[in-house]
Task: structure prediction
Amino acid sequence: MNIRYLLLEARITLRNIRFSVFTIVMPAVLFLIYCGLWAGKGAAYPDGTPVTASLMVSMAGYGAMGAAMSTGAQIAFERGIGWQRQLRLTPLSGIGYMLAKGALAMLMALPCIVIVSILGVIRGVELDAGQWLTATGGLWLAVTPFAVLGIMIGMFASPDSLQPIISGSMMALGLLGGMWIPAAVAPEWMRNIMKVTPTYWLQEVGRSAFAPKATLGVALAVLGGYALLTGLLAARRYVTDAVRV
Amino acid sequence: MTKTIAAQAVAGAALSLSGLHKRYGEIRAVDGVDLTIAPGEVVALLGPNGAGKSTTVDIMLGLSRPDSGEVAIFGKAPREAVLSGSVGAMLQKDNLRADVTVGETLAIVAALHGRPERAAETMRQAGIDGIAGQKCGKLSGGQKQRVRFAIALVSEPDFLVLDEPTVAMDVEIRRQFWQSMREYTSRGRTVLFATHYLAEAEEFADRVVMLRAGRVIADGTVAQVRSAVSGRTLRAVVPGASADQLAGLPSVTGLELRDGRAVLSCADSDRTLRALLAAFPAAHDIEIAAVNLEDAFLALTSEENL
Result:
């Protein structure tokens, strides 16, 4: 892995105002608003999950997901303008390029998790060291399928269609996955829909740190399945793309 | 014995293309190109749009795979040549990322080549160190071209490939561009540039390779290619002559007639002139000239003459 390349790309990504606002500032602000609305001191959902910690995981997860997806999807843009062709005239291999994009996507998922977690502490979330590790590090690792999804979208989308696809996917995944309406307060039928989305299970990983009845095993299986499926689609596209160009 | 000599020539060549074919559906983009370029040569790949220049360039760089045929750059496959940094290229499209600065763009390419120190050096070489902090999206066409030229120089390649390097440049920028190219080639580097500007080929190339419909139709020095189209051009005002009558004159190979003004391509202009004056005593303002590269180009690349 070319660290220098990765850091240069990270700097360029973070400098993008739109990116930083939508994946760092917005989730942080939403977290504070939601806390004000729903999270009184010591508030808990009917199943006993603390509200503030749960909102923290949801918003950190939402921002991290968006950051990972939109970073991975930049492939579409670089492919569209022909920058990728220029990169093929350097020692960076095609696989190396995708791994670098994946690593970059994961790196970009970190700031939102860190910032929202710090706000969580300020808002009174109290966890022990192991719980914090799961709620931040575990959540971060669970973002992997979204980095892969972003890369897959980047392999299929055109530069013009990229932004609507990413915004639409984030909205759908956030809404259906229960990031906007907490699953704990949603009606049964809605919760069943939520359980199909990878976003529901992304939050489940973070919540497993403190929720009384978390199903971490299922979460990992579902997320792994999504990562594998999107990864295979991306790989397939990569092979046909290489033949075409 | 002959084969050994040929093999040696190819082994020592900067570029060797043999039997290259590439088709896109029904279109034969490259239809049997053979080309060997010796180290130090500056070669113009000349041809009209759709002649197969860009496809040939893509194949030699390993960006496109030929249906059949071999490519060797300093005896190596394209990808190996890229890995060793011995080939650099300026691709045709404006492919710079608008939100990335000039300095970052070169830093990325230099980092990927494992030679981070080259970023600053190439910017100086290409005369863009003054705009390092600017975003590529804000640059003028000429500046962008220079950034792309700098990218091609990062690995200090011995073989430089330029696909239509000066397209959309104004005259002054174009002059400056070729000035920096000259500095580069004066150090014995090999250059191949695709162009449809005849003047550039004439002025900057040691050798001209003309492509038409995916094939090499002429290959040699500018003087050789010019003489490949034998004959001269006869211009005259010929009142009352029809195109058929003029085309029927002896040794006429091509004809253009507008408002009584005729331009005749002749294999033997003396014969044509005698017959012309005999048939049309009123013909006047007669000029006879040797073909220039442009005429040669038109003659060689137009469908009608095949």
